[in-house]
Amino acid sequence: MAPPRLIDIHSHFFPHSWPDLSARFGGEWPWMRHEGDRRATVMIGDRPFRPVYDACWDMAVRLEEMDRHGVDHQIMCATPVLFAYDRPVDQAAEVARIFNDAAIELREQGRGRIDVLCQVPLQDSDAACRELERAMAAGHVGVQIGNHVGDRDLDDEGILVFLQHCASLGAAVLVHPWDMIGTGSPRMRDYMLPWLVGMPAETQLSILRLILSGAFERLPGDLKLCFAHGGGSFPYLLGRAENAWHERDIVRKDCPHPPSHYLDRFHVDAAVFDAGALKLLVEVMGEDRVLFGTDYPFPLGEKEMGALVLGSALDEAVKAKILAGNASRFFGLEQRRVLVGA
Q: Where do the Amidohydrolase-related domain residues begin and end (predicted)?
């Protein structure tokens, strides 16, 4: 079977509806307010969070839009607002089961063109490992996690235990920024600045924590780790971190190698929206470590899916890697097709 032309590794879903979590657990929880004309608003309590439309929950609509843009396959995950990392572990575990089971139901409507990532109660490594095992057995190809749990970043001991377990199960990990720096500050309240400034900063912070803490020295080399949104600010400010490592012992005290040494330990998606940024991203990360991703179907996602890569000045062989080849390898999609006889 010829490899797919486009594999989108970063897309999201919301179910059409889900149990009333506020009635079940108390407090404010996300819920879906349907508004007709295929539109809805995700609410948190009585506050609007995000406008969405039926591609989030209707796989026929999603497949039609994938066809329109030439996307052969999508990896789909929930949205960080559903993580519940700040809730009691038993509540977060139940919420993870609800949305992981919903993801499998949506995948089954995807005619073999949809795969899904689970979510886990990352605030407790044992509970997170249990739900990861359950979800992988049900058919998930990996897990989406937030880039931190409160003040605990990816180099936290419990999160490292979870990442080691992901490697042992062959579970791919997509790290998505959330709960952004500065949210709630008057300086960030306008113009979606938490998404425009805080999200890239969060991802850079998490990558540097893994590098400078020495965490990558403790993680298995076969861990499949990908950071969303082109790695945030990291690829574009690598030189600053590299210079700091060489010039200041307080930067390198826990890290035996300069930051550039660790570029082969993780991947990034290509959702950067600019040809110059994409060119630099490939130069920094290498052509084998950039995966096509769109953030579909959200307002800040790529509207013409694949247009940035296809219209770039990159070599055609590099485009093919980014658009499909790297993702197929990262998620083991060809092997999965052989196993299921697709």
A: 7-333
